[in-house]
Amino acid sequence: MDKVVLAYSGGLDTSVAIKWIPEKYGMEVIALTVDLGSEHDLESIREKALTIGAAKAIVVDGKQMFVDHFVFPALKAGAIYEGAYPLATALGRPLISYLLVKTARAEGAKAVAHGSTGKGNDQVRFDVSVAALAPDLKVIAPVREWAAEMTRDKEIEYAQQHGIPVPVTAETPFSIDVNLWGRSCEAGVLEDPWTEPPEEAYGWTVPPTQAPDEPAYVTIEFDRGIPVALDGERLDGVTLITRLNDLAGQHGVGRIDHLENRLVGIKSREVYEAPAAVTLHAAHQALEKMTLSKDQMRTKAWVAQQIADIIYNGLWFSANHQDLRAYVESTQRYVTGKVRVKLLKGNCTVVGVDSPHSLYQKHLATYDTGDQFDHTAALGFIKLWGLPLQTQARVQMLPQGEEPLSLPSVKADG
Predict the structure, then answer these.
(1) What architecture is the 3-173 domain classified under in CATH?
(2) From CA 259, how far away is CA 207, in angstroms rounded?
(3) Fewer CB within 10 Å, N side or C side of the chain?
(4) Residues 219, 209: Cα–Cα separation, whole Å
(5) How many angstroms separate the most distant Cα atoms in the chain?
(6) Is it the case that residue 342 has pLDDT exceeding 80?
(7) For 69, which DSSP code?
(8) pLDDT tops 70 at residue 242
């Protein structure tokens, strides 16, 4: 039999797919579970895949690779989709795609498969990434293919009929994806944008109203844009993110209720939790404000938006992304220093920044003793700065009695 490597999460869609692919395609299923910070018992997931019918089940620890090659590059870029979403799930898909292809090569498989729907973003991320890495491999998407006859409630029924244990029922219909960088929750009552997310939609954060009344302070140290220490203790990326998720989550930080624009053209309501991501992005942005010039910051803001779109839209392995990343790496040469953050009742506030490469110079900014700013230069600067405006006003506007350009024209009645 031909082989197919399935990205297996242990959830509803991919569990049903283990049964459905052999029936539909006559292919042997190899289940690949990639650990990017899952909260599940991975050995149980592996055993479940074999019980359902997988010929082989493989578990890969991808956490360090995920942080080093995907999360931290996105953090350095400042990549946040539509100003809200830190791209946790979106960042995991290109890595899973890479490992799918790598496993397919090792196992001699002719296809890979994923559990994405036909209206989501993940299908694009998987399909496009696999096509870029291994265009000869066939991509099978069972949920997308059976969408016409198998709705989500029928899928649950199918699982029950075939004795497939899944964590989703008609009573608890949330679709949840988890990795180190964030937790996403959708479906069920969340599909009504008027409905406030119920508390059971959250798993990482306490309600801000129930968070401690006293704030927590944490000092985050960065080296060339990468967080390397918390409160003076140097940590590897996985440990640092895990600790910060716990600490910020205890103070209700990181809840995101987002109505976003999907790549396929529809709007979707997503509830995210990203305590560490929210905290680290805030700290990183504060350090950049101190160490980047005005023009660098403005250009990088545009680049950040482009990279966020690239990640969200499944184009991680594009040449354009590679080119923009080279610019980002250049901007991070001096983004080194410490940032003190205050966590309180769902809020993350930067309260202190320090860097050996700071462009903030107190002797230029102060109004007190020690001021070294040349005030006498201001008059000449202002004269030259305003010269184009003064010239145009004198030549083109004042002789005709026109109003200043910033005001609407005034006309007499009648």
Answers:
(1) 3-Layer(aba) Sandwich (3.40)
(2) 20
(3) C
(4) 24
(5) 88
(6) yes
(7) I
(8) yes
Beta-sheet pairing, 216-223 with 182-186: unpaired
CA 159 vs CA 10, 11, 52, 343: distances in Å = 12, 11, 10, 43
Active-site residue numbers? 13, 93, 122, 175
User: Residue 288 is inside which H or E element, if any?
Assistant: helix 275-291
Is 21:14 a contact under the CB 8 Å cutoff? no
Please tell me the distance from the alpha carbon of residue 46 to that of residue 138, in angstroms, as a whole number.
24
Cβ atoms of 238 and 67 within 8 Å: the answer is yes
Question: CA–CA separation, 1 vs 129, rounded Å?
Answer: 26
Enclosing H/E stretch for 280? helix 275-291
Residue 257, strand partner residues: 271
Topology adopted by domain 178-364 = Argininosuccinate synthetase, chain A, domain 2 (3.90.1260)
Strand blocks (E) in 74-147: 111-113, 138-140
- Grouping H, G, I as helix, E, B as strand and the rest as coil, residue 342 is strand
Q: pLDDT tens across 14-65, in order? A: 898 998 899 889 999 999 999 999 767 899 999 999 999 999 999 999 999 9
